[in-house]
Sequence to fold (285 residues):
Amino acid sequence: MSRIFDALRRSGGEQAPRTFSRAPGEDVSWRDLVESLETRAANSENVGRVQCVLGPENRIVAHTIKQDPGAEKFRLLAHRLLQLRQRRPLSRLLVASSSPKDGKTVVAVNLAATFARTSARVALIDADMRQPGVGRVLGIPAMPGLADYLEGRVELGAAFKIAEPLGVYYVSAGQGSGNPLDLLQSPRMDELMMYATETFDWVVFDSPPLNPFADAQHLASVTDGVLLVARAEKTQKQALKQSLAALDGTHVVGVVFNACGEARYDHYYSYYRESPAAKGRRAGS
Fold:
């Protein structure tokens, strides 16, 4: 895994698009993916990088203010997820919400930045190809990313960019012409999931809301756990119940209540359900 990761760090920026060919019924070769990445590493010195905009009003509290109460909440959240990972597989994490504007994107970005501060290898993937939000939070302009890779216009390694100064590997949502759910269910998405899982310690996905799109439900079925975000005084209990019902059979590792605090930045509180019975009690409260 370190060999692949080191190659990614050394590899160049945008390369000519490449589609990995396959015979009918033949799976794409994992060796082809690795060899392509290492070829790029041998021919270039710098990985593609993008600069985040971290102004005084920025919502990336995990990086900008070390002593901020919101940053401390994210450190606690990351610590509890690490504890949970000692008991079960948990590297591919979906951050989801019931409705738009619940704050899931801000939570996904801050959680990824918090993991990166521990020297973990972290990928942050904007899988919301309907209304991308990660780039806006990072202050990064639109660029080729997930949709472009899934439609074959960008090769796999070139979709990842280091978001400075966070140290997070970022994949933008990109711009596609196909149906987002169909793209997420494509074989190329399977290739990305395999690559990311082998390369990174944490892969954090942002997605469209659970209601009314099916994108998040599909992502939940192929990731290791779901972190569900609800916003204080906005997310309705019925919407949260519908989301939990939609995720039936999927491991929800926790619920984050966003915007609970009175300070300058939102505070984030997490509650963990370790059993289906506890999950039911939480949904009914």
Summary: Confidence is low (pLDDT under 50) at residues 1-5, 7-31, 40-46, 262-285.
